[in-house]
Write a structure and sequence with these properties.
Length: 217
């Protein structure tokens, strides 16, 4: 009986080792009826074997040179990630309307991606900065003259490429979302002086100062 038990345990251990080796690396092991749930079509993110009709044997193919994918036109940005590109971006204006909807969406996105460093009210007192491991920006807060007079084009450039210790946010914010965040930054910066598009008054203090600054730079 002891010999039988020893043989059983030994064979079981060998079977486990064999099965683990068999399914290691790129081998997924034995699948039951894969034809029932694995597509035979050349789907971009599903590939079990080489696609013999495509270059390099991959399902995914590079787009035709000079083409733009449907819905991706807004991702074109012609300013390089250089000092000259940053300065030239000052001439860019926010193409969106300062509507309650856009500002509200900017606030929502700000409270996901920005407040951790810059704080809920733009005081550079978010938990990342308050923790003491990273220094705050050289300007005090969003209410400082530096932010109030910073052209929105430069804000967009900074969010796109990053600046100083701040990294690029282009992977998490689309261009439209970046402009929405900028609206909310302006609202934090100017408070009640920042008018929405629903307000029928003429050019605001913000518009005047930003236009003057963009021209001056």
């Amino acid at each position: 009986m002891k010999k039988l038990l020893s043989y059983t345990i030994g064979l079981g251990a060998i079977a486990i080792l064999w099965s683990s080796c068999y399914s290691s690396g790129d081998n997924t092991g034995i699948e039951y009826a894969p034809d029932m749930y694995v597509s035979k079509g050349y789907e971009p993110f599903t590939q079990l074997g080489p696609a013999n009709l495509n270059p390099n044997g991959t399902n995914m193919r590079l787009p035709v040179n000079g083409t733009i994918a449907r819905g991706q036109m807004e991702f074109l940005y012609n300013y390089p990630n250089t000092a000259d590109g940053y300065e030239s971006s000052a001439s860019n204006a926010n193409p969106l309307t300062a509507s309650v909807k856009n500002i509200g969406e900017g606030e929502r996105l700000f409270n996901i991606y920005c407040w951790n460093c810059h704080g809920k009210k733009g005081g550079n007192d978010g938990p990342v900065i308050a923790g003491g491991k990273f220094p705050p920006p050289p300007w005090a807060n969003y209410q400082s003259e530096y932010i109030q007079t910073l052209p929105v084009g430069k804000m967009f450039h900074t969010i796109t490429f990053g600046k100083g210790l701040m990294g690029s946010h282009s992977s998490v914010l689309t261009p439209t979302e970046r402009w929405q965040v900028i609206f909310y930054i302006q609202k934090l910066s100017w408070g009640d002086k920042f008018k929405t598009a629903e307000n029928s008054e003429a050019a605001t203090t913000v518009d005047t100062v930003m236009t003057h600054t963009a021209t001056k730079n």
